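Could you please consider the sequence and fold following this short note?
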Amino acid sequence: MSKVASRSRMPRAHKVVFRADVQGLRMIAVLAVILDHLLHWPAGGFVGVDIFFVISGFLITGLLLREYERTGTISFWGFYRRRIKRILPAATLVVILTVAASYLLLSRVRATDTFWDGIWASLFAANWNYAVEGTDYFQPDVAISPLQHYWSLSVEEQFYFVWPWLMLLILWLGAKARAGVSSPAALAVQLAIIAIIIGSFIWSAWETGASPTWAYFSTFSRAWELGIGAAIAVFAKSFARIPDTWRPSLGWLGLVGIAVSLFVVTPERPFPAPWALLPVLATALVIIAGTGGRQRSLWPLTNPVSTYVGDVSYSLYLWHWPVIILMSAYLPLDTVPNQAIAIAIIIGCSVASYHFIENPIRNSGWLDGRAKASHGSSRGWRHRGPVPKLVALSLTSAVTVSMVAWALIPHEPSAPAGPPHAVFLGDSYTAGIGGDGPDWPTAVSEELGWNAVNLAAGGTGYVTEAGVEGCGKEHCGAYLEQSAAITDDPDIIVVAGGRNDPVESIGAAALKLFTSLREEHPDATVIALSPWADDDPPNEAFTAKSAAVQKAAADADVTYVDTGQPFVGHADLISSDGIHPNAAGYTTLSALLAPMLAEVTGHTVTGVGSPSATSATERQDQVREALRAKEWPELTPAVDELGDDARVPEWVTDHCLDVSDSNADDCAYGDEGAELVALLGDSHAISYMPTLRAAFPDRRVQSLTLQQCPAAPIAVQVRTSQGSSPYPECDDHRAWTMKWIETHKPQTVVIVDTWDTPTRMPGEDTVDKLREYKDALTGLVGRLTEMGAKVVVLASPPPGENLVDCKTPASAPADCLRTMPRTYSEWTKATEDAVTDSDAADAHFVRTDAWFCATGSCPAFVAGIATFADGNHLTDAAARALGPLLVQAIPTQ
């Protein structure tokens, strides 16, 4: 069949006319979305996106049909060229500027997330990215991406990547199929679009119930909305026969339906299916009323103001969301003045973008080979056309790309990326000889979170000559020999001692050692501690030694720390040998040196000069101090280091969140022969692992956790990016755990369940769910104590603000406070009652709210430590700082 014959069977497309009513619909759609996002009113403003889908389906399909009628085919290059010119320039500009602004205005973690969101948006796959991440459009539990709105553009472009090819195939097959049908091509397209609408809607209805997050972002669940718009274009010949007298009624009926949908379609209703039907069908009525005839009566849509807003609606949609999200990081958008500022910025950016980027490029000859304006024009660069705008766009893009590149370059971090590696050199004092407690380098390193190696040895000094008085050897071990044993590149080198060295040669020997260390390890912080004495007052020779070491440190540009002679006048701190510290002496020395070394190195998990609290009272004082803070302290870990990787190393490094037979042996910490402590619970439990290890340093602590699986034997659902579903693996894990406990017989079992566990239990009544949880936990505690274990039920932390989201260059600590939710208090009470009702003498409940909050308010940091890696799970530093508090909270060990 010839192309002419084929085209004769197609319904004649109406002449392309300006549809003022369609532009007015765009106005309604974009204003609804902006008002919803900025004012949270009307409640159903998000359906503006669905209005856009119908409009796009109608316009694009009509364009393709007219081209087929005119040429007998569809030019894919022409179609995609028009889409590129229409969509890409403004969209790319907004992505680039938003990413650049994010690096300037937001935390680096959040800005990096925005950068990757920009990559997904540029590939028109943003919707799948958000679906995979489990983004809840209506109830986000993390910071919202300033590029999240690109998901709808991705849906449209994915649809249009397939639709032209499918249409051409259907038209070609329809034209080949004669079978007595007067318009086989048209009928084929009509049947195809009906099938697409029905199939997509059925899928959308199923997916809305099974996986609402995926349904919201999925192209397959949204295709029926675009399909209804396409169907209007496909059935345009039939709609053209509608009597003109009916058109006003249909148009106003559709307009009323749209208005109603803005208020009755709320986030609580199943969406997109079936509730998106209301705005979609209402929009279809308005478009149908103006198809094939003039729509003169819908003045709210067809007036010049509405049509102009419709013209700039694409730019308004692109700009509104980044402006709102970035502004909200600095200004609360719940006041009229700030809302007015946001609206002014949105309008200004959108109008400029439309007139200088979007419209000129769309109407230019870019990509289509049309002749450009002559460069010989007398108006030169001031002639009309897109060239000046393209130059401006290029320059703007170059500047913003440079800004992003600068922001991505690693800069000097405010805190080390991980625990620093420290090496200690010294004599018998540093080696820990004489006491029955740990040597002070070990104790200080544990306090500060350092990875340390102690190379100290008895009889060692700065001086290398043999026969030094008091050395006790023919040849002193010498610090130079210890330094030669350093095989890697430590961050910190601490040299302590010098008690046995002769006055006349200690200075030169110390200078030689310090110079050697600086040359061999130029990136390390080298610290020299003053020698220690127990004479009261120190004798003249000892004072001279200290002065010589101090001068050598200054000459070698090494940090010198005067410890204040901790043992002078304190015979009670000296062991029976009369020389070395006893256990109390080493404890005193550790307490003295920890803040000193923290201050001079800046490497500390507890914040410079802020050691871990050793009592609940001291901890409360630290919490209250954080609540009163007016300025941000130097945080550990730094905000740019927060996120998933900042969770405790037992989780992210050792992979001991999900424990089974396959990895149980790898998830035990401490000596194999020591008393055994077993940890049961979910991700909040593993987040306490550093706390347990700090509280029980002489025991073996075994993780038996599973994510989202409470220790209490109750039915829960597991949450994934596809929604919630039954969790039979949790029951299997609990059964395995109890068998493990029966076999290994731990002396202590620690239970930690997440405070919001009842929200994942089946049922609607919170009181009933709390009662069920309490009864289940009571039974578990009783069973474990009957098995001979001491049980400690440790409350999970209350939720906090995520510093990645709330801390900005313009924020204050007060902006990141979190009020303790009532549901947390109710869960805590139920958990405490469960332990009490067990009547077990060896069961204890440990409240933790006072560790994190005071007077119902919870700061995002305590004593310079960022509490949460993600708003829920403790950072390693925060968890380890709680060790002394847990020791104090348990009545007996």
Observations:
- Residues 1-14, 178-182, 371-417, 604-610 have pLDDT under 50 and may be disordered.
- The first strand starts at residue 421 and ends at 426.
